[in-house]
Write a structure and sequence with these properties.
mainly alpha; 3-stranded antiparallel β-sheet; two-stranded parallel sheet; 21 helices; binds glutamic acid
Length: 471
C-alpha cells in the first residue's frame, strides 16, 4: 500500500443508496487522483453495525462502476479475499492498538459518564449560556480510581485535548481554517460498546492507506481539527483536507440517503445515462468546464480543487436533463437500443429499427417516452392527453373526414397531406395541426409529423382519423 504521489479515496458508510451528493464526492476524488496520475481507493466505513448493510455495499459498488469509476484498491479489486482490509469492520484489532497506545501515553482516558450525566452537564452549560462541551470530569480520576471503576462499569475512551491557542489547516477548497482549541472539549474516540467513533477510524485509515488528499462534504468540517489532533498524537501523517459545499435540494436542504429519488440507482432506473450524470456532476459546484460532453480523462485534466465551490450547489434536474440529451446524441446505436426497455424493443419492427432509433435520439430523453413513442407508432394502445382530446373535440366540422380523404390521396406524404387538407378545410396553423396530431398520436407535441407518418404507415394513420369522422 505504499506509494508516493497523490492518493485519494471515497469512503462511504453503507447505510443507504449513494445519492447525487455522495456520487459527486466520489467523482471529484477520482478526478483529483487521475489528474495527478495518482491512486484512488474505495473504503467501506461499516463500523456502525446496526445501520450498515451488506446489500448496500454491493449496490454502491455497482453504482460507482455504472458511473464509470474504477478504483486502484478496495472492494472488488485484486484477488478474491484481498479486499477485506478495505472494510473497516475487519480492522477492529488495528484500531484497538491505537486506542491502547493513546491511553498508555495519556492522550486518552476512560470516561464513565452516562448519557444522563452528560445531558445534565449540557443543560447546566446551556443555562449558563456556555457552548455545550465535555467538562473533563473523568479526566481527573487517579490511576487507581480508573482501574477500580473499569472492573465494574462500562467506559468510553476520550481523547484528552491538550494545549491552548488555535489549531489551523489549509482547506483545499475553503482556504485557511482556524479553530480555538478551548472550544473543542475532550471527545469520545471509542464508544462504551467498544466501537470506534467514525472520525477516529476514518483518520487512522487515511493515514495507514497513505491517503494524501481527502475531499468530502462540508458536514465533516467540524471533525477535521479532532482528526488532526488524533493523527498528530499518534505521529501519523495528516492528509490535505478539502470540504465541498453540500448538494442541496430544491428547498435548500442537504440531500440525504432518505431522498430515494436522487439516488444514483433511481436516476439510472429512470434511464439517465452514466455519461449524462458524470457530466452534470462534474459541473455541479465547479465552473470553467467547456461546453460539450467530456469523458473522465478530459474532466480530470482541468480538475482544480481550489476552484471548487464553497457554497451549496443546488441539484437541478433540468441541467441533468440537458446532459442527458447530449449523452443520447453521442451513444452508439447498440448502446441506444440497449437503453430502451424490453417492451419497446419487442414492439419495434426490425426494418424500422434504424428510423426509430434516429427518432428517439432526436426527440426523447427517457426510455418511458421512447416506449410511448413505440406504442404510438406500432400499436393501437396509447394514451390520449387531455389537451389532445380537447383539440379533437373542438376540431372544425368534418375535419377528420377530410383528413381521411387527404390520406387516401397522399398516403403518408405529409407535405401533400397538409396541402390537401388546407385546401379542403381552409384552415392553417394550430387549427389544422393540433387536431391532426392529436388524433394520430394522442398528444400535441412530439417528433415531426413528416417523420412519424411514414413509420406508422398509411393504414394506421387512416384508421385513427376515420375513428373521428362521424357521418
Ligand atoms: N464515511 C463517511 C461518510 O460517508 C466518510 C467521510 C469522509 O469522507 O471522510 O460520510
Amino acid at each position: 500500500m505504499s506509494g508516493t504521489g497523490v492518493t485519494t479515496r471515497f469512503a462511504p458508510s453503507p447505510t443507504g443508496d449513494i445519492h447525487i451528493g455522495n456520487a459527486r464526492t466520489a467523482l471529484f476524488s477520482a478526478l483529483l487522483a487521475r489528474r495527478h496520475g495518482g491512486r484512488f481507493l474505495l473504503r467501506i466505513e461499516d463500523t456502525d453495525r446496526e445501520r450498515s448493510r451488506a446489500e448496500h455495499v454491493g449496490a454502491l459498488i455497482e453504482d460507482l462502476r455504472w458511473l464509470g469509476l474504477r478504483w486502484d484498491a478496495g472492494p472488488g479489486c485484486g484477488p478474491k479475499g484481498a479486499d477485506t482490509v478495505y472494510f473497516q469492520s475487519n480492522r477492529g484489532a488495528l484500531y484497538q492498538r491505537y486506542f491502547e497506545d493513546l491511553a498508555a501515553r495519556e492522550f486518552a482516558y476512560p470516561c464513565f459518564c452516562t448519557p444522563a450525566d452528560l445531558e445534565r452537564e449540557r443543560t447546566r452549560q446551556r443555562g449558563d449560556a456556555q457552548a455545550p462541551r465535555y467538562s473533563g470530569r473523568c479526566r481527573g480520576l487517579t490511576a487507581g480510581e480508573r482501574r477500580e471503576r473499569l472492573e465494574r462499569e462500562p467506559a468510553a475512551l476520550r481523547f484528552a485535548v491538550a494545549g491552548t491557542g488555535t489549531l489551523g489547516f489549509d482547506d483545499l477548497v475553503r482556504g485557511p481554517q482556524t479553530f480555538r482549541v478551548a472550544d473543542i472539549g475532550d471527545f469520545v474516540i471509542r464508544r462504551s460498546d467498544g466501537t470506534p467513533a467514525f472520525f477516529f477510524s476514518n483518520a487512522i485509515d487515511d493515514a495507514l492507506m497513505n491517503v494524501t488528499h481527502v475531499l468530502r462534504g462540508e458536514d465533516h468540517l467540524a471533525n477535521t481539527p479532532r482528526q488532526i489532533m488524533i493523527l498528530r498524537a499518534l505521529g501519523l501523517p495528516v492528509p490535505h483536507y478539502g470540504h465541498l459545499g453540500l448538494v442541496v435540494d430544491e428547498h435548500g436542504a442537504p440531500l440525504s440517503k432518505r431522498r430515494g429519488d436522487v439516488s444514483l440507482r433511481a436516476l439510472r432506473a429512470r434511464g439517465y445515462l452514466a455519461d449524462a450524470v458524470v457530466n452534470y456532476l462534474a459541473r455541479l459546484g465547479r465552473s470553467g468546464i467547456d461546453e460539450g460532453l467530456r469523458d473522465l480523462d478530459d474532466l480530470a485534466r482541468g480538475f482544480e480543487e481550489h476552484a471548487l465551490a464553497r457554497g451549496p450547489a443546488r441539484f437541478d434536474e433540468r441541467q441533468l436533463h440537458h446532459w442527458q440529451r447530449q449523452a443520447l446524441q453521442k451513444i452508439d446505436a447498440a448502446g441506444l437500443w440497449g437503453w430502451l426497455d424490453e417492451e419497446t424493443r419487442a414492439r419495434v419492427p426490425a426494418d424500422q429499427r434504424e428510423a426509430f432509433l434516429r427518432m428517439v435520439r432526436g426527440n426523447m430523453s427517457d426510455p418511458v417516452a421512447a416506449r410511448q413513442l413505440a406504442h404510438i407508432l406500432f400499436s393501437d394502445v396509447f394514451d390520449m392527453a387531455e389537451d389532445a382530446q380537447r383539440a379533437i373535440d373542438t376540431a372544425a366540422e368534418r375535419f377528420f373526414c377530410r383528413a381521411v380523404d387527404a390520406v387516401d390521396q397522399c398516403g403518408t406524404d405529409f407535405a401533400c397531406l397538409r396541402r390537401v387538407l388546407m385546401d379542403s378545410t381552409g384552415l392553417r396553423g394550430h387549427a389544422l395541426f393540433a387536431p391532426l396530431r392529436a388524433a394520430v398520436t394522442g398528444g400535441l407535441e412530439g417528433p415531426e409529423m413528416a417523420q412519424l407518418l411514414p413509420m406508422m404507415g398509411a393504414q394506421r394513420v387512416r384508421e385513427r382519423l376515420l375513428r373521428r369522422c362521424h357521418g
